What does this fold into?
Amino acid sequence: MRRSYSVKRVIRHQRKPGELMLVSMIDIFTVLVTFLLMTAVFSRTVILELKLPPANAQFKPPPPGLQLEVTVRKDALQVGDRNSGPLATFPNKDGAYDYAGLSQYLQLVKSKFPDKTDATVLLEPDTPYDTLVQVMDHVRVLDVNAGLSDVQYELFPDISIGDAPAVAVNTVADTRRH
It folds into this structure.
């Protein structure tokens, strides 16, 4: 049977508004928060302390001995002494830096200079951050596989960072002049 407009209007005004059921929403959010907390990965942040000289520090001449520098070039890693020059160069292998060769050489240097704890990492412009972290990790510690676990030995934990000196390039025009 058809109802008139006025009857529908009266029925509509007599109806109670719908209630909001919060209990089921609270249950859903409780389960969601519990799930997120249980599956969250809390990563450990490692902070390295870089030692910078104070602004009012006076220059002290360095003591005689090794001044270890690891220079990161686009095509190689170079280990050198600030006083005597390059000691070893590790060219890239298959487009990647030779971190294993660097670690082996630094282990040899550490065996000859056991009291030495500082090193300088020099970077060319536009060196990726990941490369810096990898080089610093290999300069700081040596990872040795001892059976089922890895053991880390300290190499040169006191690291300074700087800009690599420019490479002298001999061009064809320079060689023709001489």
Residues 68-163 form a domain with the Nucleotidyltransferase; domain 5 fold (CATH 3.30.420).
